[in-house]
RNA sequence: GGAGAGGUGGCCGAGAGGCCGAAGGCGCUCGCCUGCUAAGCGAGUGUACGGGUAACACUGUACCGAGGGUUCGAAUCCCUCCCUCUCCGCCA
């Protein structure tokens, strides 16, 4: 229905902007981990313009002469023109073939460039350079050694990694009884909060999406290896609900009064976690399939900064209500993801690990995804369309929240006290005990 | 999965090789008119990329589901794919 082909998709960075501000872009990207070679870009771009100009000139000629031929009743008078146009058509074909090749290369280059990061981002190369902006809550002190959630969960009979491994393989989990109920309670609690108090519209999107959708948010073409894929048809399992939610209005032009739009969705998420061998091999922290409640916004360009703060606050509210201590990290340039211009992570306190661990990532992608997915708006009916700004954040990763509930609520006897906010969703249950 | 019918502008809907970026209607925008948020009248009304301008004007190219082909010339003909609808089968 909105069937734009992949090659027509707009580049992630404005090609004109790139042409005119090559040094700014190069400098910005150099501060991240990008190794893009901009000399190819300049070569390809000037070649493209050359070919395009030549082709369009010939097409103008062809259109003009063909119209003339059409008006001439006696075709014998235009024999020569017809013959000449055969050659012109041929030339056009060759030019267009070359042009197509150049454009494909240019497109591939552009689609593999990450977003520019905001000037206000902390400098740095990786996780160690992220800046803590605030803490909430005080980690509880235990008069016993707090256990990791996998121990608690297995002892309580609510988590079963062994059998999940039998059913599928490593990095899958099976929840049982109160464990399954707790996961479901968390999902409902989060969705109710965001829809009833934070103004989000709940969505249940497809969990399988096509290539265009994956390209729109930036997973493709660069990160195909991280995605689960189906061969027939050519679909991908979503690694986050951000993908379908942000693509909802792909190829559309919205009215300004439709903005901002807030979407939330619970979905399972599927990730190959390639290259993470040996990391977080136990428990629920890093799985091939996990549950997440996602928050996505479209807004006016001038509002995306404050919208990010609000979105972050919406995610933090979940932890506040559950009484789980956390801190907020301002990600440095080198640690920010491919599509984001600015990112704040929320890290929850996990007593079993004695560390803060990521439970949410909230990003402002500005017009990067809107450009790739061609999502625009019009300020008024007579004005030109502009790209929206798109934001996303976890609100929250459900499995990791369950980990935090277990580890923070654990008692000396191995039972777990359920946070009060969750009890209405647990049929009043106050404590999980061995089943 | 089998059989058939279709996909045209924001929407409805004509067009069946050249005069078609595309009739007509609806909607929308601007103006007029009418002493009551109705009706009427007139004009305008897609997107992208390029040239041009102080800015308009103007102008070139492309786009009638997508991709390829035939032709001097394709919304119109041919091929492939996608999607929608109807009937049958199957199923939650």
Task: Compose a concise summary of this entry.
With 435 residues, the chain is of the alpha+beta class. It has helices at residues 15-20, 22-30, 38-71, 79-111, 149-156, 161-167, 178-197, 211-217, 242-246, 304-322, 368-373, 398-409, and strands at 131-136, 159-160, 174-175, 201-202, 208-209, 229-230, 235-237, 253-255, 261-270, 289-299, 326-330, 342-350, 355-364, 376-378, 386-387, 389-397, 416-417, 431-432. The strands form 5 sheets. The chain has an 8-stranded mixed β-sheet. It has a 3-stranded antiparallel β-sheet with strand order 5-7-6. The chain has a 3-stranded mixed β-sheet with strand order 8-14-15, with no helix packed on it.
Key features of this structure:
435 residues, alpha+beta, eight-stranded mixed β-sheet, 12 helices, disordered N terminus, RNA-binding
Question: Explain this structure to me?
Answer:
This protein has about 425 residues and is α+β, with helices and mostly antiparallel strands. Helices cover about 40% and strands about 20% of the residues. The protein contains 12 helices and 18 strands. It has helices spanning about 15-20, 20-30, 40-70, 80-110, 150-155, 160-165, 180-195, 210-215, 240-245, 305-320, 370-375, 400-410, and strands at about 130-135, 160, 175, 200, 210, 230, 235, 255, 260-270, 290-300, 325-330, 340-350, 355-365, 375-380, 385, 390-395, 415, 430. An 8-stranded mixed sheet has the order 1-11-12-13-16-10-9-4. A hairpin with a 4-residue loop joins β12 (about 340-350) and β13. α5 (about 150-155) packs across α12 and α7 crosses α12 (about 400-410). The longest helix is centred in the first third of the chain and has 34 residues, at about 40-70. The radius of gyration is 27 Å and the shape is elongated. The two termini are about 50 Å apart. Residues about 1-10 have low confidence and may be disordered. It binds one RNA strand of 92 nucleotides through α3 and α4.
